[in-house]
Amino acid sequence: MRPLVHPSIEDITVEGILHALSDPVRAAIYAQLAGSASAASCSDFLQISNRHIPKSTLSQHFRALREAGLVRSERQGVEVRNTSRCSEIEQRFPGLIKAILNAHKVQAISGLPAKKPR
Predict the structure, then answer these.
(1) Under the phi-then-psi rule, with left for phi > 0, alpha for psi from -120 to 50, and beta for the rest, what region is 84?
(2) pLDDT along the chain (118 residues), means of 10
(3) Residue 33: what pLDDT?
(4) For 9-109, which CATH class?
(5) Which residue from 110, 118, 107 is spatially nearest to 28, judged by alpha carbons?
(6) Inter-residue contact 82 to 33 (CB < 8 Å)
(7) Which of 44, 53, 70, 110 would be 40's cystine partner, CB 3.0–4.6 Å?
(8) What is the pLDDT of residue 52?
(9) Measuring CA to CA, which residue among 74, 65, 60 is closest to residue 3?
(10) Taking Cα atoms as reference points, which of 2, 12, 1 lies closest to residue 67?
């Protein structure tokens, strides 16, 4: 089994974060993770934004979030547990994640349709 690779905090870029969160499903996953006090498994997100997400697609979403430095993933038996790296990113880019999550919340509340994935 390949090890899960996480970028160091110095290698995380604003462009990488914005690219990872440009997908509405990934943004919804990250918003949920960031608001959670505990780690969540990938299977906790099989139903998100009123859509069923296939496991293979979900794995790709978590890989994009992990490679952007937004989440830390750890294998525990057959599960992968994910936590947000908000506090680390806050130190590197103060206010960035809070602004993005606030905009995501405003969009969700206003009922504006998120761009559908292609």
Answers:
(1) beta
(2) 89 97 94 92 87 91 96 92 95 96 89 59
(3) 95
(4) mainly alpha
(5) 107
(6) yes
(7) 44
(8) 92
(9) 74
(10) 12
